[in-house]
Amino acid sequence: xxxxxxxxxxxxxxxxxxxxxxxxxxxxxxxxxxxxxxxxxxxxxxxxxxxxxxxxxxxxxxxxxxxxxxxxxxxxxxxxxxxxxxxxxxxxxxxxxxxxxxxxxxxxxxxxxxxxxxxxxxxxxxxxxxxxxxxxxxxxxxxxxxxxxxxxxxxxxxxxxxxxxxxxxxxxxxxxxxxxxxxxxxxxxxxxxxxxxxxxxxxxxxxxxxxxxxxxxxxxxxxxxxxxxxxxxxxxxxxxxxxxxxxxxxxxxxxxxxxxxxxxxxxxxxxxxxxxxxxxxxxxxxxxxxxxxxxxxxxxxxxxxxxxxxxxxxxxxxxxxxxxxxxxxxxxxxxxx
Amino acid sequence: xxxxxxxxxxxxxxxxxxxxxxxxxxxxxxxxxxxxxxxxxxxxxxxxxxxxxxxxxxxxxxxxxxxxxxxxxxxxxxxxxxxxxxxxxxxxxxxxxxxxxxxxxxxxxxxxxxxxxxxxxxxxxxxxxxxxxxxxxxxxxxxxxxxxxxxxxxxxxxxxxxxxxxxxxxxxxxxxxxxxxxxxxxxxxxxxxxxxxxxxxxxxxxxxxxxxxxxxxxxxxxxxxxxxxxxxxxxxxxxxxxxxxxxxxxxxxxxxxxxxxxxxxxxxxxxxxxxxxxxxxxxxxxxxxxxxxxxxxxxxxxxxxxxxxxxxxxxxxxxxxxxxxxxxxxxxxxxxxxxxxxxxxxxxxxxxxxxxxxxxxxxxxxxxxxxxxxxxxxxxxxxxxxxxxxxxxxxxxxxxxxxxxx
Amino acid sequence: xxxxxxxxxxxxxxxxxxxxxxxxxxxxxxxxxxxxxxxxxxxxxxxxxxxxxxxxxxxxxxxxxxxxxxxxxxxxxxxxxxxxxxxxxxxxxxxxxxxxxxxxxxxxxxxxxxxxxxxxxxxxxxxxxxxxxxxxxxxxxxxxxxxxxxxxxxxxxxxxxxxxxxxxxxxxxxxxxxxxxxxxxxxxxxxxxxxxxxxxxxxxxxxxxxxxxxxxxxxxxxxxxxxxxxxxxxxxxxxxxxxxxxxxxxxxxxxxxxxxxxxxxxxxxxxxxxxxxxxxxxxxxxxxxxxxxxxxxxxxxxxxxxxxxxxxxxxxxxxxxxxxxxxxxxxxxxxxxxxxxxxxxxxxxxxxxxxxxxxxxxxxxxxxxxxxxxxxxxxxxxxxxxxxxxxxxxxxxxxxxxxxxxxxxxxxxxxxxxxxxxxxxxxxxxxxxxxxxxxxxxxx
Lengths: 337, 406, 444
Description:
Mean pLDDT of chain A: 88
Order of helices and strands of chain A: HEEEEEEEEHEEEEEEEEEEEEEEE
Strand order of the largest sheet of chain A: 11-10-13-17-15-16
CATH architecture of the largest domain in chain A: Sandwich
Largest interface: B-C, 88 and 94 residues
Radius of gyration of chain A: 19 Å
Distance between the termini of chain B: 60 Å
Oligomer: heterotrimer
Largest sheet of chain B: 7 strands, mixed
CATH superfamily of chain B: Cupredoxins -  blue copper proteins
């Protein structure tokens, strides 16, 4: 996820967010493309065909090859968001952001028994090799953490990889924030997903921010803000299984679910994160150290090898108490110390 | 802690006599107990007088067939509604057994009552027509009933269950509003997978009084909130369930039941997979049960702009937890397990969310506040366990319905 | 009402004397102190079908491996020191793995004098070696510990257990607030196992190649409370035939008492833990009171009839039962027989009898329906033969018998009913029975 954002909202700094909260929201316009890519497992397993959202290269040629979750978008509180989507896939795609209200225009078909069924939650971009682009827009963004994902044949297209994170604002108590996007890959559904019975979904790779820890190795490092500075942890589950992110260190204060603030916060060392859920938590590290964060559902395997999977290291940088706070440069929601 | 008492229990358990100690299936006839009701119809007709607060219902327990959304015919065990048929008459037993045969419905008949009611629930064990080798007793477990007495808890291990051809009347004084559920508790893993599951809710005594909440007057409330904050205009019971068709097929074929490998391949709301969930009518009856309607509950949710819609969501899935989400409108969660979400000193713990996660035996009350300008919109209620958006292998189905704003 | 023969409370008391040879003190089994020495060893988890699974378990010192590990019962504020020895042996040619302990909710540190070897999540004990952890039990509550070494494998193999930190308020409080007082407490440590994993490890040791797909997508077929499957949950603790599963789960209470349920997700799956009988009030999660501010007490608590147990999380809940509001007298009426003559004395005006906790507004109200004849009924082993609390009724030969005090019995179980099986056999699994006996009937 350590990738830059795109569009006019690029590098929206903390100060700017603060200034714009009270005014009519600025527009964040983003251009994305849905493309086929490859994800290479860390255990040396065979490369897996994925679908993903990428910054729109302008056409369906010269696409990047390596899959990651879609680039993290950073919206502004009360602002607008528009995403223009190009489709380089073999079937129609669309884009929804659960929790952000907008006009849904469901796409339907009539089955053999004459029953009308929804095949897409909203309007789609046709599969025409990238010729057509379609814009999706949202107004009055609420502060919080959202998944954006395909709204077309979601049982297939979401696990194929068509998802990413949207963050809007940052909690006023937090100095930094970090995206922790949980997802899974079942290679069996990625060969010819068309014929698969999704009921048999059995993921082999468990990812945080597109990375599966390699068993026996140092876990992937995610910058975890600064010592003694409150960090907003943004948990998102784009997978289909429930996960239980657990932090080894101080308790978290759980503040919001699906970007709706709780009436009262609660303190826990872990978070119930079912499929499609986002949770925001405040966490104040008390040491300049690495804190492990893992899935207590024990999806801590990589292709069945224990010791990997959903496991990252939150690296907390040292506190700088003697200088004025300077907003960090934000890359894809990850704060670099 | 150590008890010789439990040691004694163990000895009996280990000799295999704990559950359903052998009982003879003597048929002593059908008997409905309903105060003021002379003919055993569980209703009051003619000269019969309904006592204040009395409510009666007559359920049959047996087997039947339903049709899955991909067209598969599915054998099941279930309950049927026999209310209205005079049972305590010379021909009553025959009529009841006839009406209840192969009459199982999915979900089980909805039970919706009012706080303060005295509920007389008669259960008649019809027997399983397709399984004449079985002599299973049945019960009704009123799941979540507070301060329960074990005699009426429907737990066969700690009380009584009713044999084939006979009736047992349960009594419940309904002191607490909320969303409950009911199911047979006999050989629970089997009878519940087989479909003996239904919705049961109790409306609040506060109904009928007017409270203004956030500028709107309400006269219907999920709970006795005292401030209208659980007020609603329409209510929909929604029960999550799922079937493992291999288990059902094995039952019909009198084969060993695959408990260990139980793996549900049909995910449903109120006994149907999408798109049958949005069919407002009863599904056509299967010929195999003699043409009896067995799937009458629609899950199509309709509302008008500005209305508040109460979803009474319960889960009786026996293999998995489920996550049910709205798309297009948030859920305001105001109750859990038939209790208002309010702390002991009055702090409201209501919260908004996109989804709730509930295992079997959990319920949530959520309110959808439909914005005034949303006429013509369609929202969705669906599982974010997206692989369950299928009817077995058939895609674009499963645990999903539509919320249409007219 | 069918004719029935009712034994009296006096006879129940006689039965009690017969059955309870040596009442033990109420509470949760475990080991207490500030310094613990645990060892990881192999053992066997026995299932009610007579089979067994290979266990990697924490042992108390030189004792046998336990599933779950020893419940560590400590006091708030104490500095706890735990030395972990790795005495694990494995099949195959590879060496035994390192082992370790994580203490979610505690800030554990590794001793400088016994640092073990570095691991990914914590310091570990190498085969034959040791590691020592220390933490200050700063907050009262219910906690877990489990292996931090390849947890997907080692927790599955059995390396988990419970920690109870008693508050300075006293042993009959869950937390430092009067609203957390309880009369009895019980542990419900929920877990599951996928036998394929245990069989593969038993055959080939940790280098088993068969185990991978199972670890990626476990499919458990046995489920546990406190390390036992029903009906073994109901047996006595420290049973010789279950040498590695010392803890039982056999809750009992009197009407009007407050029972603290400590519910822990020890495995990797969620379990909806449904407690028949009545609601329970969830007062804490992960060892923290549901309080709006420090000292407010559990003012954010709420009642449920099913506790959603999340792996790695803990829930504390208060369960109470009196039979209030049933609209009939659960102790019977004189019309049911002379032995049912009783009083309801509400001296303090709380609507309940001051001694028996009978709900006085329902006193002597008759049961509103007639029960079917015994010939029409099937009976449970925990059925007393009577609708009434504290009463034994006549039952056909061989029926009932598990409820000698005529108590009310309630199943407390996973409402994922599939989990009420042991290896394909119903009933069993994640299940126990709460038995509520009338005041006067002894509870050990």
